[in-house]
Each structure stands twice: as C-alpha cells, then as structure tokens.
Prior knowledge:
Oligomer: single chain
Shape: elongated
CATH architecture of the largest domain: 3-Layer(aba) Sandwich
Mean pLDDT: 93
Helix content: 25-40%
Low-confidence stretches: none
Largest sheet: 7 strands, mixed
Order of helices and strands: EHEEHHHEHEHEHEHEHHHEHHEEHHH
Number of domains: 2
CATH class of the largest domain: Alpha Beta
Strand order of the largest sheet: 3-2-1-4-5-10-11
Amino acid sequence: xxxxxxxxxxxxxxPGMNTVVGSVAKVFLRKGYRVIGLHGGYSGLFNPRPRTVExxxxxxxxxxxRGGSAVIMSxxxxxxxxxAEDFNLHFxxxxxxxxxxxxxxxxxxxxxxxxxxxxxEKNYPIANIHVPKTIDNDLPLPGATxxxxxxxxxxxxxxxxxxxxxxxxxxxNWFIVSAMGRSAGHLAFGIxxxxxxPMIVIPEMFNKTEITIDKICKLVISSIIKRKIMSVNYGCAxxxxxxxxxxxxxxxxxxxxxxxxDDHGHPELGKIxxxxxxSQLVDARMSKLGIKxxxxxxxxxxxxxxxxxxxxxxxxxxxxxxxxxxxxxxxKTGCMVYVDAQGDVHPLFLKDLQDSAxxxxxxxxxxxxxxxxxxxxxxxxxxxxxxxxxxxxxxxNDPEEYDFRKILNW
Length: 410
C-alpha cells in the first residue's frame, strides 16, 4: 500500500492556511506519497467515520493562494478518556500513515505530540511535524520571525482602518477601533502605526502600572483633547482587545457593562465587541466632562482571518510547507518547522519554547522599549504633554490627569 501523510488544521484560521496545506501536499505528492486532509481537526482522529479529503495536485493547486482553510478546522482538544476509548487507530493502519502534519497554535502542537506518543505505545510509530500559525504574532519564534498570517491580517486590517480614518475625517467624528490579540498587541500596533492613528492602546504599554478602564479612557480622551487643541476635530483610537482581557474581574464587574457569564462565573468576553464597550465607556466620560464628541465602534478581527494571503505569506507559507518535507526526510519528529530570515529550514522543539515551570509557551509581547515602538509613540501619536496643560484647561480642569506619560507612569 502507498505510504501516506495526514494533514489537519486546528484552532482559528489565519491567511496562509491553504498555502501551507497546498505546499505540503505538492512536495509529498512529488515524492510519491498519498496526501489525506482530515476535516474537523483532532475530532476526526476520535471518530469511527472521520471526514477526509483526498488531496491531489489539482486540489492543492486550486487552494494554495486562497484564504480560509479548505481542510475544515476545529478547536477540539481530546481528553485522556478520548484517547482511552475513542482513538481511531485503524485510520492510521488502514491508510499506512507515516506522518501527521498539524497546522495550528501551541495547543495543536502539544496534542500532536500526545497523538504520536500514543501511537508509539500501540506499536505504530509515526512522525509528527507542526506548522505554527497565528495572526496575533505572539509565538516566540527566534530572531523576531513573524508567525504566518500576521502580515496578511495586518495588511487587510490596515485597509479597513484607513477607510475608517477617512470616514472620521470626512464626518469629523471619532472612531474607537479594536483589533484582535488576546495576549499581545502586535496586530493593533501594526495596524494603528500603518494608518497614523493618533492613539494606540496595547497591553504592553502598561508595563509600569495596572491596566484599568479609567486609564484606557483617559488615554483616548487625551488624544481627543490634543487634537482639539490642534483644531483637528476627528480621529481614531486603536485599542487592542488584549487590554480588555488583562482587566481584573473587579474592573470588569464595575465597568457598568452587562455581561453573560460562563459556568465558572467568568465573563464571556469572546461574545462581545470590545470596540463597542470602549466606545460606550469613553462617551460616558466625555459627556461628564461636557466635551461634545461622540465615538463610533469598529471591530477588526474575524474579517481578516480568512483574507487571501499577501505575497509575503504566500512565499513564507510555501517555504514552511516545503520545509515539512525537508525535516521529515531528515527523520525529525515532534517538532515545529521554522524558516529563518534567510529562508533556511530548522526544527524547533516545544521544549525550547515552553516555560519549564508551567509547560506553556509564553506569548511574545511587543517590545515596548524598542526604538521602533517609541518612534511611533513619540512622532505619530497625539496626546497631552506638559506643554499642553494651559490649552487643555478649556476642556478639563485637571490636564495633568490626561498626560500620556503620567497615565502610564512612564
């Protein structure tokens, strides 16, 4: 029977998913392997009748430059009970599978290692190689190498953000824009910087003070007042969704916003628009100050995850896909494929990224002390500084409270 490989995709989509799958398929087909796409992520391995697709050259060639994921994704994470009772070993033996290729985040990679270990215990060892992705750009790849999908999501997000900025200028309004990024502010900062937004708020900025709703609102209001002093009556503030996830439960409960709660009593933040909440909170503060400015919310997130990859990711994801075969041919397993800035392929093992105490991969944060970040903050953002105190008194009695650097304790 012809030897085969299986490709599955886990987590949420990112531009370049199909490029990776198509490139992996093309190189393995070229080497004489059969390529099977497994729908439903890991759920397919614990199903007696998994949904699959036979990936031939025509299929791979038709998807490689498309957004989304032709191989259906899933966030399913198997339990020990699933492994003990539901694992479909016959899927591997009947199809003569030699390699499991997974595309996803660190959870997807960790589960791949569990699957490989389980198969080895059943005397059916296979190789497993992972391709890491996230539009959040928060995996700590060496040399500041981006995660695939980030540049495409940033490019498409910047198109939307630029249109919103033009709307603000045209109508003399303010928009509060929120961009995805649960732990890190890479996407929000990248989009905001590309579009010259006068205020960008990301969690990394609060490196010397606690994140609170009051401080977030004051940063936005600081920008609004500064622009008024400049006789500019419009603008946009980019706020990373990560600042909301970093708020304490007490801050969230005291925000005045109504939430639904999960079975553990935690607010279900994934079901709400962060932009709408920030807009509502800023409007309430502005009304109390008597400043006649209304904000409008815009969310950037799901609309950029399935966008067609730009040329950067088309090349990068192709190299990642081809790199899977290179590592497989070198008998590497239990690793992620990493392509450096020169295009050289390396194996990257989870143990080299994981925290030794927790076993989790710590997120790569925006380097808030870098020259790149401070160049944007010092030259592109608009906010109240000591030189603006006197002029600011037309709008607030205590301009020092809206001083950008004092809010952040910088």
